[in-house]
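Appendix C reproduces, verbatim, an entry submitted by the partner laboratory led by Prof. M.T., so that reviewers can inspect both the input and the predicted structure.
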Amino acid sequence: MWSVPQKFWRRELLPVLTDLRLAIVLFLTIAVFSVSGTVIEQGQSATFYQANYPEDPALFGFLTWKVLLAAGLDHVYRTWWFLALLILFGTSLTACTFTRQFPALKAARKWKYYDQPRQFQKLALSAELDNGSLSFLTDLLQKKRYLVFQEEADKLYARKGIVGRIGPIVVHVGIVIILLGSIWGAMTGFLAQEMVPSGESFKVTNIVESGPWAAPQIPKDWSLRVNRFWIDYTPTGEIDQFYSDLSVLDKQEKEVKHETIFVNQPLRYRGVTFYQTDWGIAAIRVQMNKSPVLQLPMARLNTKGQRIWGTWIPTKTDLSEGVSLLARDLQGMLLLYDAKGQLIDTLRPGMSKEINGVTLKIVEVVGSTGLQIKADPGIPIVYTGFTLLMLGVVMSYVSHSQVWALQKDGHLYVGGRTNRAQVAFEGEVLQILDQLTSQAKAEVPTTSTEVIASLN
């Protein structure tokens, strides 16, 4: 006898899980929130969402930064409710596979002989021949790649395209593997962002978001060095592409990998991918008279729609006087302003200017590269599932065709059915019947052959 949990599972819960309507609702819900995760910027700071999703006016009348953060829409793919949707959808597909797809495949692999002529009347395509050879029919079916079963001399069953019944199972398995890969990636992956000046080494520390099991993926025994960062400009002064020459260093600071990255061409090492995403100006290197070269940091100014960096350069040792220096890019055009905000001059690296009795020489503008670092161990799993999904879709298009035959009382009864490509199947069966008729006439010239074909 069943226990109470077994009764509840089989009679109450299982029919709900295997309901096609539930699967459709879950699929659409997952799709909607997946789209929201691509439209709404993920992993940004609270101030970013406050600036872009204000309370007045609220987006769509309800979506404010408070609602967005409370619902976890700033990190959709790692929220508990999104993962719960994936698990529920995967459970529904798994239950459907075992309760429907596997039984359908099992039934398709079994065969049953027809031993009465009336059984052929229920088939979509059937025919009765006054004369015909069951052995000749066997040869015709085998030539058309049917698998023929015949235990008795007067009965025959043939089928082909059983792979078409396996296809839906492979589709379900592929989707479940994709869901598992997504969950695994959300649990074990991380996303980080680093802004690194040219010539400096760094370790991944600025983690933007990560899963609860992401610690083993974060690099600890190796680091990176930005050997050089540069930008290629178009003749009109627009940015064409920016590049970072990177070296992967082991614990002993020995280079183990060297690669130049740019947009859409990342560096990959030990499951971690480094993308080129941004750039900036980190510092300016100057020389005062014959002093050693000084490196002064530059900060990005709060300007609307423009990328401008600035710094203040003292011209006296007591810091009582100095000049402001502004830069817009790495092409080398620098603007010098005095304490009153008046433009003094424009300089390029290598040029000098005498200010307040001091010769100021611009040695170099130091750029910084913006890197997005990402690790997602679930990607190989997702790719595997996607491959199976595509394979299963192709397999599902293969028609599963069945043919029965019975030789009784001097008549040959032939019938068949298929689950798709009905017109092609009817043409194939009619061709077989024509060949059977021709063969019967050739063997018994004086006997007329009557073919009655009914298309239900």
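Residues 405 and 414 are 4 Å apart (CA to CA). Additional entries are available on request from the coordinating office.
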